[in-house]
Amino acid sequence: MSTEAHDPFSHSPMAQFEIHRIVPMHVGGLDVSFTNSSLMMVITLGLITLFFMIGTRRASLVPGRWQSLTEISYEFVAGMMRDTVGAAGQKFFPFVFTLFMFILFLNMLGMVPYSFTVTSHIIVTFALAAVVFVGVTVLGFITHGVGYLKLFVPHGVPVALLPLIVVIEVISYLSRPISLSVRLFANMMAGHTMLKVFGGFIVMLGFLGGWLPLAFSVAFVGLEVLVAFLQAYVFAVLTCIYLNDALHLH
Amino acid sequence: MEAEAAALLGKYIGAGLAAIALAGAGVGIGHIFGNYLAGALRNPAAAQQQFPNLLLGFALAEATGLFGLVVALILLFVV
Q1: Which residue of A16, A82, A102, A181 is 20 to 30 Å from A234, comparing CA positions?
Q2: Shortest CA gap A28–chain B (Å)
Q3: Cβ–Cβ of B66/A183 closer than 8 Å?
């Protein structure tokens, strides 16, 4: 959280995750500065809006290239929701779709060299996961009332085992936001750190020795792009599974 | 000064121990892809339908190993 000049060519693999203020702002005792993280989020929102505006501007029955892209992304998430939640979950489609596109674009923009990966900060992913967790819990109690607590009592378990099982189920339920947020954050941070460390090794090997490692590094960038997509997908799928629990109780 | 050196030693040993968690991720990912391949060769018609589940399993298995890596990185750079 330093205010000093940011050096993108620094050798520390952690320097890329530094947050620095662009427009310092303080409201009361709170630091609400416009940071590079906020800037990336605004850019992401702009890009997503642009993506769908261009895609749906001249919507036709036979889609063009842009329109196909938007339809593929829509159909991808809609199909995933049909498989995991079923018809009852369709009214939550906008939420899951927004979540998926937001995380996907943040992860993908983070892959651009010298940009900033917003999802590599646990506070961002934890806020997203907490919204999902609180929303799903409230939804479960609205749909089933106190009966939602039956979620912690699986069917067909011997009565003697129930005290143990219920405790385990409650702990696993409460650890959902932690595992959901840490999974996304850990993947993004570990991946970007790894790329930076390997990049440092290549520079050390120099102009003559570095060609083969460079090829491997390029392959790792490909892997990271896959991971960036997969983590957005996993986040959305797990949100759907939690929604399914809240709506159908196992 | 002695205590500081001991703390530094503990930090690095701890980070190394935490990184062992990634071995589990390697085993898990290998298991998932191996079993998927075995299943897909027996019944290629059903393979395409299970591809999303493969990716989901891959991501979940990788994440559990990365929890350990995060502990190692926190030890190295934050503590």
Answers
A1: A16
A2: 28
A3: yes
What does CATH list as the number for B3-77?
A: 1.20.20.10
A58 close to A51: Cβ distance less than 8 angstroms? no
B62 touches chain A (CB under 8 A): yes
User: What would the mean pLDDT of B10-31 be, rounded to a whole number?
Assistant: 93
Residues B64 and B24: beta-carbon distance below 8 Å: yes
For A17-24, which contacts have Cβ atoms below 8 Å and span 24 or more sequence positions?
A17/A117, A17/A120, A17/A121, A17/A189, A17/A192, A19/A121
Interchain pair A186, B66: CB under 8 A: yes
Mean pLDDT, chain A, whole residue set: 88
pLDDT tens-digit series, residues A155-179 = 888 888 888 999 999 999 999 999 8
Q: What is the pLDDT of residues A22-50, one digit of tens each?
A: 888 888 888 888 889 999 999 999 999 99
pTM of the model: 0.86
Nearest residue in chain B measured CA to CA from A189 = B70
3-state class of B56 per DSSP? helix
Integer Cα distance of A42 and B32 in angstroms: 38
- B-chain CB neighbours of A233 within 8 Å are 55-56, 59
pLDDT given at position A47: 95
Pair of tokens at residue A116: 């900033």
